[in-house]
């Protein structure tokens, strides 16, 4: 396993460019956002918007990016898209993912992180969304080769254990797996010990990761809560939150996972801008220690 980071996070802490930030943070791996126009365009998260500054819309531009990656000794751990299979224009969502898969293939990237249903509509059952998501994924797999789809446990429906299991079973493909977000099950409201059990059950399906953490008052850690309770105040650094990432890394290692551990610390907004790089460095060192063999 190795430490990686989201391209958005690098800019969020104040670096003017992703590559410069990676060099200063002593990281090689990063997750690359691909928009509908096949560029790393404007991306909004946590109330912040950044232009990521990449363009992979043509073969020539992708070859130039590959050379730049090689010259900087950098690697892309996964491509990220912000699709939503709950939208009415489902063909556009499928096309976005298929196009991103082709970009990933040309860049030598193995996995594309996808969403399932982000904005469920009243009157549509979870079973219907399972069928819809599975059908979209099957169409994408049929239209692409080699690339794995890594569905994140993200949002309301997408964090439900039963939904994820049903989609995996319906697709039934080695190329279909998960982006394991280590904080999102806890955000959804599962009690802390249940979070570990869910994650351990899903480790055989993990293709990619997002590492984040949260913290709750003692009387809220071990009970079922409503999705998003206390958010974003509940966001915590990787090294101080409630979730024991050592336990999660050990579970991933036991399952044979050898890929990225991608940092997505959403607590950075709690700190003044001039302190965020320092906090992120502590996150990075914390994760590096988790990867090192036990002594």
Explained architecture:
The chain is α/β, with parallel strands linked by helices and 295 residues long. The protein has a single domain (2-291), classed as Divalent-metal-dependent TIM barrel enzymes (TIM Barrel, Alpha-Beta Barrel), CATH 3.20.20.150. The protein has ten helices and twelve strands. The protein has helices spanning 7-12, 18-25, 59-71, 90-107, 126-143, 161-171, 184-188, 192-202, 245-254, 276-291; strands spanning 2-6, 29-33, 39-45, 48-55, 75-80, 111-114, 148-152, 176-181, 206-210, 213-214, 235-236, 260-263. It has an eight-stranded parallel β-sheet with strand order 9-8-7-6-5-2-1-12. A two-stranded antiparallel sheet has the order 3-4. Helix 5 (126-143) links the parallel strand 6 (111-114) and strand 7. Helix 4 (90-107) crosses helix 5 and helix 5 crosses helix 6.
Give a quick set of tags describing it.
alpha/beta; eight-stranded parallel sheet; two-stranded antiparallel ribbon; 10 helices; 39% helix; globular
Tell me the layout of helices and strands.
Blueprint: E1 2-6, H1 7-12, H2 18-25, E2 29-33, E3 39-45, E4 48-55, H3 59-71, E5 75-80, H4 90-107, E6 111-114, H5 126-143, E7 148-152, H6 161-171, E8 176-181, H7 184-188, H8 192-202, E9 206-210, E10 213-214, E11 235-236, H9 245-254, E12 260-263, H10 276-291
Parallel strand pairs: 1-2, 1-12, 2-5, 5-6, 6-7, 7-8, 8-9
Antiparallel strand pairs: 3-4, 10-11
Helix pairs in contact: 4-5, 5-6
């Amino acid at each position: 396993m190795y430490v990686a980071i989201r391209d958005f996070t690098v800019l969020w802490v104040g670096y003017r460019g992703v590559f410069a930030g990676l060099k200063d943070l002593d990281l090689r791996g990063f997750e690359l956002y691909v928009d509908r126009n096949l560029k790393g365009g404007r991306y909004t998260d946590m109330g912040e918007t950044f232009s990521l500054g990449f363009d992979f819309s043509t073969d020539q531009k992708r070859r130039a990016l590959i050379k730049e990656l090689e010259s900087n000794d950098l690697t892309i751990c996964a491509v990220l898209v912000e699709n939503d299979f709950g939208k009415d224009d489902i063909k556009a969502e499928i096309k976005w993912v298929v196009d991103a898969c082709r970009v990933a293939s040309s860049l030598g990237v193995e996995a594309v992180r996808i969403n399932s249903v982000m904005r469920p509509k009243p009157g549509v059952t979870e079973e219907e969304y399972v069928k819809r998501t599975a059908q979209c994924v099957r169409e994408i797999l049929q239209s692409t080769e080699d690339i794995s789809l890594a569905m994140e446990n993200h949002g309301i429906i997408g964090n439900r254990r039963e939904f994820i299991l049903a989609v995996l079973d319906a697709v039934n493909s080695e190329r279909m797996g998960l982006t394991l977000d280590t904080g999102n099950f806890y955000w959804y409201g599962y009690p802390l010990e249940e979070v570990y059990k869910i994650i351990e059950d899903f480790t055989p399906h993990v293709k990619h990761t997002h590492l984040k953490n949260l913290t709750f008052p003692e009387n809220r850690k071990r009970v079922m809560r409503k999705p998003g309770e206390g958010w974003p105040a509940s966001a915590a650094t990787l090294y101080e939150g409630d979730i024991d990432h050592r336990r999660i890394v050990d579970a991933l290692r036991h399952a044979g996972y050898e890929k990225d551990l991608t940092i997505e610390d959403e607590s950075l907004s709690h700190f003044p801008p001039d302190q965020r790089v320092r906090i992120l460095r502590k996150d990075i060192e914390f994760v590096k220690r988790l990867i090192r063999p036990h002594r």
